[in-house]
Amino acid sequence: MTSRNILPASGKLGILTPGMGAVASTFIAGVLAARQGLKPPIGSISQMAHIRLGTRGEDRNPLIKDFVPLAELDDLVFGGWDPISPNVLEAARTAGVLDGEDLSEISKELEGIIPMEAVFDQRWVSRLDGVRVKENMSKWEQAEALIDDIARFKQENNCDRMVMVWCGSTEAFQEPSEVHASVAAFEEGLKASDDNISPSQIYAYAALQSDVPFANGAPNLSCDIDCIVELSKTRGVPIAGKDFKTGQTLMKTLLAPGFKARMLGLEGWYSTNILGNRDGEVLDAPENFKSKEVSKLGVLDTILQPELYPDLYGDIHHVVRINYYPPRGDNKEGWDNIDIFGWLGYPMQIKVDFLCRDSILAAPIVLDLALFMDLAHRAGESGVQEWLSFYLKAPQSATESGPEHDLFIQQTKLKNTLREWMGEEPVTHSEAG
User: Fold this and answer.
1) Domain 248-355 superfamily per CATH
2) Domain 12-244+359-421: CATH superfamily, name plus number
3) For residue 395, which phi and psi values (nearest 5 degrees)?
4) Do 369 and 375 meet the contact criterion of CB atoms below 8 Å apart?
5) Rounded Cα distance, 8 and 68, in Å
């Protein structure tokens, strides 16, 4: 096979995160610790996973980071926007994800990362009060201000390339409207400060107009609107979304393919979560929970294909609940009750209690999305990067066939994309071992 012409990852890569709270501060702290040799970047596919090339007998299994030309951790520069946190060290301390001992050795670097004033609108996150925000601006002026921020950050930090990964809060649920139908309509809406344009959409627009790839780590309507897809193609800039696949949904995409592989039936799947960080506070508002609920509920049907297996999966009772519980902090707990049935229809139950650390699971996803989106841009990609669905709860599809949710199919697609870009044959059989 012929390899893709991929530009080298030379110089510095700036990673900008709208939202510099628990997830972003944990991500930045982890990268700083990894490049100082303090802790390995556990959970990062780009840094720790091997990729098999050719047949198993060839015994070619390089690390992904040695196989494809990714930016080095030492070349990453961090920045972003936040309506609350004065610097990343204070954000990390407030979030309480990391122990003080882990922060102490990198505290000076974290304290030196100062978020820029955010585009913020409380109508989209009713439980938060923004204090470090761009005020008294039209939405068009906000977009221009973000574009200026990006250009200034790139110049001041001598960055050769930039990527943007949304790490902010979940916005209130929204359906696409006329203002999202085209770039022209969206720009008119910006100038008119249309109420249907959310902050995350303004960030996505500003990123693409600055030739910066944009990945959406929340269930917001931002990448998956016609105007942003159009802009990503005309500007030749990749996009990906949406919603980091971390705790409970990660478990669903692990377990559901196993039930289907064994042809075990599923009658019901009841999921509830308790969490107490800023995300939990935001999701306590019904309009914000709705965005997350839709993102979480879309997983099972695509994996289980009830239209093909009506006897097994044609009548599933799938319920998702999220409860704000401040004592839990960032250590989210996800409970799942799964009612399955087997031979002759006899019922069985599976109980899962995942005491996860949400930001610990999200941080390596931010790193991988940033590095792979930069790779895609250097490889000449534009539009939806469906091969990165592995990282996302509600992955955006590039075709009318819809997204793939099976974690193992997603993993194959990700690795095969890398193989093909580097001139290697795709793997179509088991990678076990």
Assistant:
1) Dihydrodipicolinate Reductase; domain 2 (3.30.360.10)
2) NAD(P)-binding Rossmann-like Domain (3.40.50.720)
3) -60, 140
4) no
5) 10
Q: Residue 151: which region, alpha, beta or left (left: phi > 0; alpha: psi -120 to 50)?
A: alpha
- So what's the pLDDT on residue 295? 58
User: Which uninterrupted H or E stretch holds 77?
Assistant: strand 76-81
Please report which residue ranges of 271-357 form alpha helices under DSSP H. 278-283, 286-297, 299-304, 310-313
90 three-class SS: helix
Q: How far apart, in whole angstroms, are the C-alpha atoms of residue 14 and residue 242?
A: 21
Region 204-233 average pLDDT: 97
Terminal-to-terminal C-alpha distance of the chain = 25
Domain segments of the chain as ranges: 12-244+359-421, 248-355
pLDDT at 75: 98
Alpha-carbon distance of 258 to 253, in angstroms, equals: 9
pLDDT tier, 374 (very low <50, low <70, confident <90, very high otherwise): very high
Residue with more model confidence, 376 or 248:
376
pLDDT beyond 90 at 402: no
| DSSP-derived secondary structure letter, 71 | P
Six token digits for residue 28: 């930045």
Token pair recorded at residue 315? 């009548």
Query: What is the tens place of the pLDDT at every residue in 78-125?
Result: 999 999 999 999 999 999 999 989 999 999 999 999 999 999 998 999
Longest CA span, the chain: 68
Beta bridge partners of 76: 13
CA 323 to chain centre: 22
Give the C-alpha separation, 340 to 347, whole Å: 6
In terms of Cβ atoms closer than 10 Å to its own Cβ (0-12, 13-18, 19+), residue 398 is middle
* Cβ 341 vs Cβ 264: under 8 Å: yes
Tokens at 8, concatenated = 């080298």
Instruction: Report the residue count for the chain.
Output: 433
Give which of 168, 239, 212, 180 is closest to 395, Cα–Cα. Answer: 239
Both tokens of 228, joined, read: 């942003």
Residue with tokens 């938060």: 128
Residue bearing tokens 């590039």: 398
Q: Which helix (H) or strand (E) holds 215?
A: strand 214-216
| Beta-bridge partners for 133 | 118
Residues 6+ apart with CB under 8 A from 425: 1, 54, 419
- Classify burial at 144, counting beta carbons within 10 Å of its beta carbon; exposed 0-12, middle 13-18, buried 19 or more: middle
